[in-house]
Amino acid sequence: MSGALDDTHEPALQSWVESANADETDFPIQNLPFGRFRTAGSRSWRVGVAIGDAVLDLQRAGVVKNAGMKQVMGLAPAQRVALRHRISEGLRSGSANEARFREALLPQSQLTMGLPCEIGDYTDFYVGIHHATAVGKLFRPDNPLLPNYKWVPIGYHGRASTVNVSGTDFPRPSGQQRGADDSRPVFGPSQRIDLELELGIFIGRPSTQGSPIPIEHAEEHVFGLALFNDWSARDLQAWEYQPLGPFLAKNFASTVSPWIVTMEALAPFRRPFVRSAGEPEPMPYLDSRANREHGAFDIGLEVWLQTAEMRAAGSPGQRLSRSNFADAAYWSVAQLVAHHTVNGCDLRSGDLLGSGTLSGPLTDQAGSLLELSQGGKQALTLANGEQRTFLLDGDAIILRGHCERQGARRIGFGECRATLLPARDPG
Length: 427
Ligand code: CA
Hints:
Number of helices: 10
Strand content: 25-35%
Shape: globular
Bound molecules: calcium ion
CATH topology of the largest domain: Fumarylacetoacetate hydrolase, domain 2
Largest sheet: 8 strands, mixed
Structural class: alpha+beta
């Protein structure tokens, strides 16, 4: 596992890019997340690293040669660490390479960010045990968690074509729905659009079909994490989900943040992965000493809502909830990779695994409106007096994430934002 700390994590490290030294930046020199950008008038994506309010063009800086994001993501762990060192050294105060790197530096505000990579297959897991329990309770009050939950990391195959980068707005989807008292389904715009606060796990090094990835090597195949909003149409979902699981309720849009925070950058924020007393031990293929000792990640997560009214009033929005990956997840990143491949299924560079909704144990730590509104029964009253059960047209959801720990430099994920637009006229 990429657990080793080195001089790139040194909290006192400063950059000659002044904005990277500001306390509140998500992108200090200890972070160095990867994304794809293009400049005005250009059609091709370039690979960059965020530093303060700027982006370093890796090819212009001479640290990669003609490499697309997939090549960078596919590097072996030792090569990834070496690349991180080259970038860190060039951006440090007093670097001998400052002049060359300065020529490769672009202001983020002038760039268009794309998806961090071309996304291959997309799988969505369900690791948030508090979410699974709360949602299960709405449908099965006596038996909220199904018996497989604590043995199998539950997941389904999603759709990559509708994964959008942050900032891509989308129309309210239409579909079939049937109310509890209706004898027949009706067709129309969904009335129950929800968000799901998730992390996206990006696969770096590919694996081979027929060869399961042992849990001890699972993280070598993970490039890093990003924020992920798995938008959901709850009314479509309730009608269609049995017997094969979610389909059109989930694949109309998902939003991912533009920056992948690497496993190396997350090293200072690892935590032991522990199960409470009385919980079943994971099966041997889902268990390792490294996973137990530092398989969890301490990542603070926040959901913000900015309604059209708030936007018109110049308000940045209101925080709806906050949670933490380590407290929310019943399964670790390494366990998901080991489980996904245990039957011989291979993973490829650029594949995306959604974590599932990362709700905390308390009601105000829920990562979906389904939970916050108790299945739509209890409207939330917002600070400006507006009320919400599910989302209205013009509502923007913004996800944020950051890692903070004594003795480490705080790093962040940037933001994952999109606005729900009115349904398109089906005519
Ligand atoms: Ca989901």
